[in-house]
TrEMBL record:
<feature type="domain" description="MATH">
    <location>
        <begin position="178"/>
        <end position="320"/>
    </location>
</feature>
<dbReference type="Pfam" id="PF22486">
    <property type="entry name" value="MATH_2"/>
</dbReference>
<dbReference type="InterPro" id="IPR008974">
    <property type="entry name" value="TRAF-like"/>
</dbReference>
<dbReference type="InterPro" id="IPR002083">
    <property type="entry name" value="MATH/TRAF_dom"/>
</dbReference>
<protein>
    <recommendedName>
        <fullName>MATH domain-containing protein</fullName>
    </recommendedName>
</protein>
<feature type="domain" description="MATH">
    <location>
        <begin position="19"/>
        <end position="156"/>
    </location>
</feature>
Amino acid sequence: MKSLQINFWFSTSYSDSSPTHYTLKIASFSLLTKLSADKYESGEFEPYCMFALWKLVLYPNGNKKKNVEGHISVYLEMVGADSLQTGSEVYVDFRFFLLDQNKGMFLVLQEANKKEKCFHGMMRYSGFDKLVTLKSFTDASNGYVVDDSCVIGAEVFVCKERRAGNGESISMIKDAVMCKHVWKVENFSELGTECCKSEPFTARERKWKIKLYAKGNCDGNKGIHISLFSELDDPETLPCISHFLELTDPKKIAGSKVLAEVSLRIVDQMHAKHKCLKGTKWFSTSNPSWGWSKFISVDTLNQAGNGFLVKDACIVEAEVTVHGTAIAL
């Protein structure tokens, strides 16, 4: 009998008992290795644990994403991570079982040096890239694949749970698309000191507005400058910006941000010498607007030959390009 080739960092033992929590029996193992599908995911199981559900993930030809060849790869994956309290971590002791059909016993394999593994929302699986060589595993004299069938099992024991610290997750957008909005402000001379807002427009599934103060927005520039800003129209729904995040936690909403490149322009309707300023800013629920208090002087805007006011109307343009999002963990 040839010995089963097992990596040295595993601790091994034998057990008369079958796995307590999950058993996966595979008939026609050779056919499974020939299929195009690179992995098999078991059904979910709950090992007397209220914290999460689990499943076995088997790569019969090795995990190609880890450049594994000539071995079988086996992992334990936490599938109930979304149900965990925000920032929680679960520490587990897990072991895998291989049925030795010649001895009628299970070979038990687990990591030799560190028994507990930490699982959380960003670390959902752990296991062994090279559990055993495919050659020795399928050698019938070793007893693990007999008549082309085998049995693989798992036990999972939760050791402790703890709440992790706060954090953020940033997602950048590779092919960001610019959105342009044109706003014609008529009867400009009749505007008072109050803020005027454009109709909402959409950029990267977010609603935005342009804010204009015809007489300035603060004491230092009242009646001297025009103030112009871009603004998130619905910052309280910021978590919805990401297709894969659905959040209701107020703390997460408060920590959500949008990175946007903004260009604001007052159009020169006569000479095409527009007044334009631009910049990049993180927008959030606490800071939903950004722009310039001293965008252009009132005198420059009103000067007839400049073309910014024609028939008592000015044209304001906004270009918004969302480049990324951040959300509290």
